[in-house]
Write a structure and sequence with these properties.
The complex is a heterodimer of chains A (191) and B (95). Chain A is mainly alpha-helical. Chain A has one domain (13-189). Helices cover 78% and strands 0% of the residues of chain A. Chain A has helices at residues 9-56, 67-81, 90-115, 121-140, 143-162, 170-189. In chain A, helix 1 runs antiparallel to helix 2, helix 1 packs antiparallel against helix 6 and helix 5 (143-162) packs antiparallel against helix 6. Chain B is an alpha+beta fold. Chain B is 55% helix and 19% strand. Chain B has four helices and three strands. A three-stranded antiparallel β-sheet of chain B has the order 1-3-2. The two termini of chain B are 13 Å apart. The chains are: A mainly alpha (191), B alpha+beta (95). Chain A binds chain B through residues 1-5, 7, 9-10, 12-13, 15-20, 22-24, 26-27, 81, 84-89, 93, and chain B through 10-16, 19-20, 22-28, 30-31, 34-38, 42, 45-46, 63-64, 68, 84-85, 88-89, 91-92.
């Protein structure tokens, strides 16, 4: 790119649009990586806990949920470390904000449910998981993500109320897959 | 009578840098270099010009052990960029 090239108004406007869009796509494609990371982690963790609980009959395996942030946050930091620093924009900050709020709520409520006041934590978390997914879809203006979030939140809540066994955990496997798919959709949308 | 195009912005590399910064909170020098395909020397000179005009700010620091130069658009830069785009639109609309 030359600094002294004489540009027409048309070329200038085209350059602005291209540079702006290219950087916007970079930023959102970068956010997609984190959706995929947490999607895979949620799928693997929920499946592992369900299998362990199902075959041993011991619900104590649920403590493994607390391993998810312990593994996830260092991995997320590692992903960010090994790349040219991608900037943030309003959209990526809002998405990060929504999911940070979700993470904080789920972790705190799970801790309260385990150590202080027993509650139907699966029901609560699946509702806020669906809500966070739905809000992400609204921010990204993507209908499949909005619908997936709605189905996960509402369908998952009904499932959690009807199914009383360890099979409840499979809702989170579905949630993990949806996060992964959301990441893939973003990767394709902002290619 | 059309408004005069800002000579600071009416340059290919400086305009590309401003367009990237207009849509992001801040951007690293390495990212700007990758996006624009410019050489380090050329990009440094243009960033200096934008800084002197008060359109961007540059903050040097470290990310871990690696040196990091972060560029951020200022309010004056945002205003100048908006005015530049409006002037371009006027030119094109008059054609």
């Amino acid at each position: 790119m030359e600094q002294n090239k004489e540009m027409t108004a048309q070329e200038s406007l085209q350059l602005i649009t291209e540079s702006f869009n290219k950087s916007r796509k970079d930023i959102l494609r970068n956010s997609a990586k984190y959706f995929m990371l947490w999607g895979v982690l949620l799928t693997v963790t929920s499946l592992a806990i369900w299998l362990l609980w199902h075959f041993t009959g011991n619900p104590q395996w649920n403590f493994l949920w607390f391993a998810m942030p312990v593994i996830g946050y260092p991995l997320a930091a590692l992903i960010g470390k090994n790349q040219v620093a991608i900037p943030q924009n309003e959209m990526s900050k809002m998405l990060a904000g929504v999911w940070s709020v979700f993470g904080t709520f789920s972790l705190t409520l799970s801790a309260i449910a385990v150590f202080l006041v027993p509650m139907h934590v699966t029901l609560i978390i699946v509702i806020i998981l669906g809500l966070a997914e739905c809000i992400s879809g609204v921010l990204l203006k993507n209908w499949p993500i909005i619908i997936a979030g709605f189905i996960l939140g509402v369908g998952g809540a009904v499932f959690a109320l009807l199914v009383k066994s360890d099979a409840q955990l499979l809702i989170f496997t579905l949630g993990g897959v949806l996060l992964l798919v959301t990441g893939l959709i973003m990767k394709i949308q902002y290619k | 009578m059309f408004p005069k195009l800002d000579p600071i912005l009416h340059s290919e590399l400086r305009l590309a840098v401003m367009s990237i910064l207009a849509g992001a909170d801040e951007a690293d020098f390495t990212y700007l270099k990758k996006q624009t395909g410019a050489t380090s020397g050329n990009l440094s000179v243009q960033i200096d010009k934008l800084t002197s005009a008060g359109y961007i700010t540059v903050e040097k620091g470290f990310k871990g052990k690696m040196p990091r130069t972060a560029c951020r658009i200022t309010e004056a830069g945002q205003n100048a960029f908006r005015a530049y785009v409006e002037a371009l639109k006027e030119y094109l609309a008059a054609k």
